[in-house]
Write a structure and sequence with these properties.
The complex is a heterodimer. Chain A is of the alpha+beta class. Chain A is 23% helix and 32% strand. Chain A is flat. Chain B has a single domain, classed as Ribosomal Protein S5, domain 2 (2-Layer Sandwich). Chain B is built from four helices and ten strands. In chain B, strand 4, helix 1 and strand 5 form a beta-alpha-beta unit. Classes of the chains: A alpha+beta, B alpha+beta. The interface between A and B is large, with 31 and 40 residues.
Chain lengths: 226, 247
């Protein structure tokens, strides 16, 4: 095991005991904070969380996700967001307040199979998560390369305060939109940059558990610059 | 149960059992996590001569819809013995015994899995017994909890299973098929070692209250030994492939 701060834990393992806050993927019994998942423990500012190494995507409020329109009713679209819950995008979000199910045709704006970048407005699990595409950088995706990675590896791809993804973007001039649900869109005018960015993402997905990953990715990005 | 009129020597004068074990020794257990590509989580367990494959799906949509619960997720278990798992061909249709074991394993896993986090969904656990040699319910339970952890489903603890029992008037750990058939009692236990809670407890046969206490004590001890192997199986899959010691 590593230092006290970053440890590999399995469900039921006590991470730390004492005066700490229980955050993501942990629970408390008395003073003990216990992991509920396989992952890496992370203690920061008195809070304890576990970064998962496996598992699917569970929608959370304010998450940015990439989804695919699967169907629509008179009032809303159903969106596959790579989770056990389907996302719901209400028609009024696209057409505005004066939406009328008689005069407006949902398929004219978003057809089945279209990809969207959306933000989760409400994910209280009592009903399907509510999405919105009104906002900066949200909406229909027109171009780019769609890549799917394991949702548990998204935090690693983003890195501490976005360090990893910024490094990739700088080195390749690509624009990467990461959905918390494990789907990402990479667009780049230069095809070499695009290939490089895709390779970097694949490397991270493959070796997410390895330490010093940032250095490895950096090395890879700089190696074949010609 | 209670068949004392067999000619098998279950325990010799040196306290060695029919398969060469001591009274408080488990069979050799080995577990491998993540053996199936198409399931969300999986495990393969060898518990002595028992060989069991477990696949886990979920959380996912519940079909049929009426089974879903708006307050919590549900867990569904299917324990099944393949036709070639026993000496005489077993009819592959679910038997009364398999339905019972599916139910007790489901109830043994429920306290461990944090289903409240996923309302309206189901977690499906499929256990296939490829080869049976007594104590399959404990082995299947042990494998199932590794497969659930491998699927990344939040759990309070792993559930380890091990049986204790009585044969030749002696309390023994981890009853095998012969001891189960010819012995006097069998006490399968499912146990969460970190929380120190029992999730499965059945008793087939007759024990005095002292014998029962002793059985329970060594059974829990057996579960703790099995837990260490579960832990190792998960560590082997997730932590030993590089990474851990190079920062």
């Amino acid at each position: 095991m590593n230092s006290e701060k970053n440890r590999h834990v399995i469900p039921g393992e006590v991470i730390v005991s004492g005066n700490y806050r229980s955050e993501q993927n942990t629970f408390m019994i008395g003073e003990k904070i216990i992991s509920s998942i396989i992952g890496l423990s992370d203690i920061r500012d008195g809070g304890v969380r576990v970064i998962p190494l496996t598992g699917g995507y569970i929608p959370k409020d304010d998450d940015l996700v990439i989804g695919k329109i699967t169907s629509h009713s008179a009032m809303s679209w159903q969106v596959n967001i790579n989770s056990c819950y389907d996302g719901m995008l209400p028609a009024s979000d696209v057409f505005g307040r004066d939406f009328s199910s008689h005069s407006d045709d949902l398929a004219s704006k978003l057809a089945n199979g279209d990809l969207i970048v959306a933000r989760i407005v409400n994910a209280d699990m009592t009903r399907d998560p509510l999405l919105t595409i009104s906002g900066r950088e949200l909406g229909k995706i027109d171009s780019g390369e769609l890549i799917q990675i394991s949702p548990s590896k998204v935090p690693r791809l983003i890195g501490k305060r976005g360090s990893m993804i910024q490094m990739i973007e700088h080195a390749t001039n690509a624009n990467v939109t990461i959905g918390q649900n494990g789907l990402l869109v990479i667009s780049c005018e230069d095809s070499n940059g695009l290939i490089k960015a895709i390779n970097a993402v694949e490397l991270i997905e493959e070796q997410a558990h390895v330490a010093n990953l940032t250095d490895k990715v950096n090395e890879m990005l700089e190696s074949k610059s010609d | 149960m209670g068949g004392r009129d067999t000619d098998i020597v279950l325990l010799d004068e040196n306290g060695i059992r029919s398969d060469g074990r001591k009274v408080n020794e488990t069979r050799k257990v080995s577990i491998k996590a993540g053996v199936l590509k198409n399931a969300n989580g999986s495990a393969y367990i060898e518990f002595g001569d028992n060989k069991i494959l477990v696949g886990v799906y979920g959380p996912r949509d519940v079909h049929p819809k009426h089974m879903s619960d708006t307050n919590t997720g549900i867990i569904r278990c299917r324990y099944h013995m393949t036709p070639f798992s026993v000496g005489e061909r077993k009819n592959p249709a679910p038997s009364r015994r398999e339905i019972e074991i599916s139910k007790v394993i489901k109830e043994a896993l429920e306290p461990a899995v944090m289903l409240k986090q996923f309302p309206r969904t189901a977690v499906d656990v499929y256990m296939e017994v490829l080869q049976a040699d007594g104590g399959t319910r404990c082995a299947a339970l042990t494998g199932a909890s590794v497969a659930l952890a491998d699927a990344g489903i939040p759990m309070r603890d792993l559930v380890a299973g091990c049986a204790a029992g009585k044969a030749a008037d002696t309390i023994i750990l981890d009853v095998n098929n012969e001891e189960d058939q010819a012995g006097q009692a069998d006490l399968p236990i499912g146990y969460m070692p970190n929380l120190e809670k029992i999730t499965l407890l059945q008793l087939d046969g007759i024990l005095t209250s002292d014998e029962y206490k002793k059985c329970l004590e060594i059974g829990i001890d057996g579960c703790k030994q099995v837990y260490e192997i579960q832990k190792k199986a998960l560590q082997d899959k997730y932590f030993t492939t590089g990474g851990n010691n190079n920062d």
